[in-house]
Automatic annotation (TrEMBL):
<comment type="similarity">
    <text>Belongs to the neurochondrin family.</text>
</comment>
<dbReference type="InterPro" id="IPR016024">
    <property type="entry name" value="ARM-type_fold"/>
</dbReference>
<dbReference type="GO" id="GO:0030425">
    <property type="term" value="C:dendrite"/>
</dbReference>
<protein>
    <recommendedName>
        <fullName>Neurochondrin</fullName>
    </recommendedName>
</protein>
<dbReference type="InterPro" id="IPR008709">
    <property type="entry name" value="Neurochondrin"/>
</dbReference>
<dbReference type="Pfam" id="PF05536">
    <property type="entry name" value="Neurochondrin"/>
</dbReference>
<dbReference type="GO" id="GO:0048168">
    <property type="term" value="P:regulation of neuronal synaptic plasticity"/>
</dbReference>
<dbReference type="GO" id="GO:0031175">
    <property type="term" value="P:neuron projection development"/>
</dbReference>
Length: 729
């Protein structure tokens, strides 16, 4: 085709536009557009590239001249097909005097026409053009060239149409579109606002895949948006508040971005604002709190004031929303405020390196108490028809976070709500899949339209465990929990969660919350063993629990990195064994013998003899595995020693089993090899308790201890009870 041909095409295009203005858009009698029909006929009869090009341009002009229904679009596609547009998009030789992008522009215009049909937008011939279309977004050229601008608009129309198909986002991401959109936005050339809009849609649809394919480019966009946010002085800062949560990465947010975001939020929230201005800022702050904790807030006076302001505003918003009867609750905003309250709770209970000063903590606890009161008031109004709503789940979550740290205040209100909480937890436990889905819906509602960073627990019971652990110590709340069936529910929950850690399951992929939940369940059961022993004896669920503990501990004590859970299981099992000592399962069965052998292993391996430079005598020291977690472990260890001591006279077979394990002999050997001054009095008392009961229970144990210099060791450590016991026949 020559330049003259192109000029003629241009004139024909103008003529076609005038014709479309004069002729009716649709002939009602025939149901066809006469102008378009004439051009389609010309296209079908074209004998060479020049004629086909001219006819195609006329068709394109006719398409743009008026509204075209789906059937007409399909007829255009049937007449044109993909072959010629494909050639237009990939040609490298333009006619003399013709800009090289003109042919591509026509090809893109045709694709844009076809893509307005969702079926065609998902066609393989469109999808395989994604890489080519993506390159057009960043191609250099005259920014004032109308044809080039038209091509860019058509390109965005194509890509947007593809993004709207079910599998479109995945194809766009694989085709390099995300990086191209980022570069187009950062270049701030023509259509950069369309690039941002399409990026937002792709991130909302497939965040993880977008970040996997184009993390450096997306971070560059985040840096640009954060900087704009920090500098903005007009209404654009409120628009950016709504956009920025979408661009926060699932991994680490760059420090410079956090600084800009915090500075921008501080200016916004420190001003007098209407709700439509303040709410997006609170939601952005909640997203940052959820992703980064308090790391995005600077230390020092300015940071503490900002955090106090955040929590204060969140509490006010919660009270306004939940205390006004009959008012419509903006659930997304209130749930975001819950996330900020959680941040406040964490900082108020942090002992070291807290951002808050003590007077601020006292003030915020008082403010949060009022907001939690509003949450309790709201939950008291929740009927059974609303129990599966995400906002109810979010409200239970924040209450659980509060009860994990504070149960003394609002005690009356909490006790009144306990029956509802037990029923609610039971409902979601029995419908576990819905509970997991609710968790994601809460994350979507509160924090981001995409997947949040840290995992939100997928069941209500796990949220309530820490609070219930505190409440089972108190008589009133404990009686309510027992009356409502909480112990039985907790036993079922523990057994279900334990299955996730059993052989055949990959424990490396389990979230930490599963093991933490199991440990917290053990603490609740320990409270019940001490405060309600009759319940343990009469409720059959605890027999099932005891059986699980016995069969599980032998394998658990051998696993690296799970010593704290093993300590909980061993101690709980030993305490329950004292109460259930008459059970057939504890009468020397293989399971019971395996359990006590594992419990002895846990108790006996805690301390070793360690040589000290410049001294002939070793000292008693913690084993390497125990040393790093002894602060969390020592109470369980001492309680376990006491419980084992109590089991010995109740289970006649236990003393001979302990002797076969050589624990009493090795314990005396250990004490004889270290300096008595290195053994603390509480350790001496714990060791003496076990040795005395074993010696009293079994003659062979006494003889073995005497052979191990037991009387001499008892004298050195002033173990009067042991010394007396070993002196007897």
């Amino acid at each position: 085709m020559s330049c003259c041909d192109l000029a003629a095409v241009g004139q024909l295009g103008k003529a076609s536009t005038m014709a479309s203005d004069c002729e009716p858009a649709l002939n009602q009698a025939e149901g066809r557009n006469p102008t378009l029909e004439r051009y389609l006929g010309a296209l079908r009869e074209a004998k060479n590239d020049s004629e086909q090009f001219a006819a195609l341009l006329l068709v394109t002009k006719a398409v743009k001249a008026g509204d075209i229904d789906a059937k007409t679009r399909r007829r255009i596609f049937d007449a044109v097909g993909f072959t010629f547009p494909n050639r237009l998009l990939t040609t490298k030789e333009a006619p003399d005097g013709c800009p090289d992008h003109v042919l591509r522009a026509l090809g893109v215009a045709l694709l844009a026409c076809f893509c307005s049909d969702p079926e065609l937008a998902a066609h393989p011939q469109v999808l395989n053009k994604i890489p080519i279309l993506s390159t057009f977004l960043t191609a250099r050229g005259d920014p004032d060239d109308a044809a080039r601008r038209s091509m860019i608009d058509d390109t965005y129309q194509c890509l947007t149409a593809v993004a709207g198909t079910p599998r479109g986002p995945r194809h766009l991401i694989a085709g390099g579109t995300v990086s191209a959109l980022c570069q187009a936005y950062l270049g701030h050339g023509y259509g950069f606002d369309q690039a941002l809009a399409l990026l937002v849609g792709l991130l909302a649809a497939a965040e993880t895949q977008c970040w996997k394919e184009a993390e450096p480019d997306l971070l560059a966009v985040l840096r640009g948006l954060s900087e704009d946010f920090q500098k903005a002085e007009d209404a654009s800062k409120f628009e950016l508040c709504q956009l920025l949560p979408l661009f926060l990465p699932p991994t680490t947010v760059p420090p410079e971005c956090l600084r800009d975001l915090q500075a921008g939020l501080a200016r916004i929230l420190g001003s007098k604002l209407s709700s439509w201005q303040r709410n997006p800022a609170l939601k952005l702050a909640a997203r940052l709190a959820h992703a980064c904790g308090s790391d995005w807030i600077p230390a020092g006076n300015s940071g503490s004031k900002f955090l106090a302001l955040l929590v204060n505003l969140a509490c006010v918003e919660v009270r306004l929303a939940l205390e006004e009867t009959g008012s419509e609750v903006k659930e997304d905003v209130v749930t975001a405020c819950y996330a900020l309250m959680e941040l406040g709770i964490q900082e108020c209970t942090r002992c070291e390196q807290s951002l808050l000063k003590e007077p601020q903590k006292v003030q915020l606890v008082s403010i949060m108490k009022e907001a939690i009161g509003a949450v309790i008031h709201y939950l008291q109004q929740v009927g059974s028809e609303k129990q599966k709503e995400p906002f109810v789940f979010a409200s239970v979550r924040i209450l659980g976070a509060w009860l994990a740290e504070e149960t003394s205040s609002l005690r009356k209100e909490v006790c009144q709500l306990l029956p509802f909480l037990v029923r609610y937890a039971k409902t979601l436990y029995e419908e576990a899949e819905e509970a997991s889905d609710l968790s994601q819906q809460v994350a979507n509602l509160a924090i981001s339209p995409t997947t949040p960073g840290p995992t939100w627990p997928g069941d209500a019971l796990r949220l309530l465990l820490p609070g219930w652990c505190h409440l089972t110590v108190e008589d009133g709340p404990r009686e309510i929990l027992i009356k409502e069936g909480a112990p039985s529910l907790l036993c079922k929950y523990f057994l279900q969660q334990w299955e996730l850690t059993s052989p055949g399951h990959d424990t490396s992929v389990l979230p930490d919350s599963v093991e933490i939940g199991l440990q917290t369940c053990c603490h609740i059961f320990l409270n019940l063993v001490v405060t309600a022993p009759g319940l343990i004896k009469r409720d059959a669920c605890f027999t099932s629990l005891m059986n699980t503990l016995m069969t599980s501990l032998p394998a658990l004590v051998q696993q690296q990195g799970r010593l704290l859970l093993a300590a909980n299981v061993a101690t709980l099992g030993l305490l329950m064994a004292r109460l259930l000592s008459t059970s057939p399962a504890l009468q020397g069965t293989p399971a019971s013998r395996g359990f006590f052998a594992a419990a002895i292993l846990f108790l006996s391996q805690s301390h070793v003899a360690r040589a000290t430079p410049g001294s002939d005598q070793a000292v008693l020291a913690l084993s390497p595995d125990y040393e790093g977690i002894w602060a969390d472990l020592q109470e369980l260890w001492f309680l376990g020693m006491q419980a084992f001591t109590g089991c010995v006279p109740l289970l006649p077979w236990l003393a001979p089993a302990a002797l076969r394990s050589r624990w009493p002999q090795e314990l005396l050997q250990l004490l004889g090899s270290v300096s008595p001054t290195s053994v603390k009095p509480e350790m001496v008392a714990a060791y003496q308790g076990v040795l005395v009961e074993l010696a009293r229970a079994n003659r062979l144990c006494r003889e073995a201890m005497r052979l191990q210099a037991g009387e001499e060791t008892a004298s050195h450590y002033r173990m009067a009870a042991l010394e007396q016991c070993l002196s007897e026949p």
